From TrEMBL:
InterPro entries (alphabetical): Split_barrel_FMN-bd (IPR012349)
Protein name in the entry: Uncharacterized protein
Organism: Thauera sedimentorum
SUPFAM superfamilies: FMN-binding split barrel
Gene3D superfamilies named in the record: Electron Transport, Fmn-binding Protein, Chain A (2.30.110.10)
Length: 165
């Protein structure tokens, strides 16, 4: 079991964000304009202190540029069947090459995400095309969460995670 004592994330949060959830990575471009990209997987360090989201360099070019300029990111993880949503923010993000296993993680994520959206009428081919990324284009954006919020629609949306923020 991971030691989460110094992290904003507990084991349940880690299981959620590394599961089959939609992942959107956002950053701020010069002039205050937002940049957003879908991510194709997530991994968390053993101590739960660092989160890495995987993106395609071409598809996420604006976000990657913004992250390199400021290091500030916001990542939203949302479960399509329940709309349960968690948002993490960080200010020390780095753009890194993928680690061993990240390509397989991205493939597994696309397979699982296509399957979870199928009951909602989204054709597998459409989901795969939407999340497509050549293996050699994959990058990781790693950051230490400095704030974490529930963003599940409802009366508690926007509240910091209990006891963690």
């Amino acid at each position: 079991m991971p030691d989460t004592s110094s992290s904003l994330l507990d084991a349940a949060h880690v299981a959620f964000i590394t599961g089959t959830v939609g992942i959107n990575l956002a950053a701020c471009r010069p002039g205050g304009f937002p940049a957003l990209s879908r991510a194709v997987g997530c991994r968390v360090s053993a101590d739960c202190g660092q989160v890495s989201v995987l993106v395609g360099a071409a598809a996420a070019a604006d976000v990657i540029d913004a992250v390199r300029r400021s290091g500030a990111v916001a990542v939203v993880f949302s479960d399509p069947p329940t709309h349960r949503t968690l948002q993490l923010k960080g200010s020390n993000a780095l753009v890194l090459p993928p680690e061993p296993g990240d390509v397989a993680l991205a493939h597994a994520y696309r397979d699982a995400f296509a399957a979870i959206l199928a009951p909602f009428g989204f054709a597998e081919g459409v989901v795969r095309a939407f999340l497509s990324c050549p293996d050699d284009d994959l990058l990781a954006v790693r950051f230490s969460p400095s704030a974490a919020f529930s963003q599940t629609p409802g009366p508690h949306a926007g509240e910091p995670l209990p006891g963690r923020s």
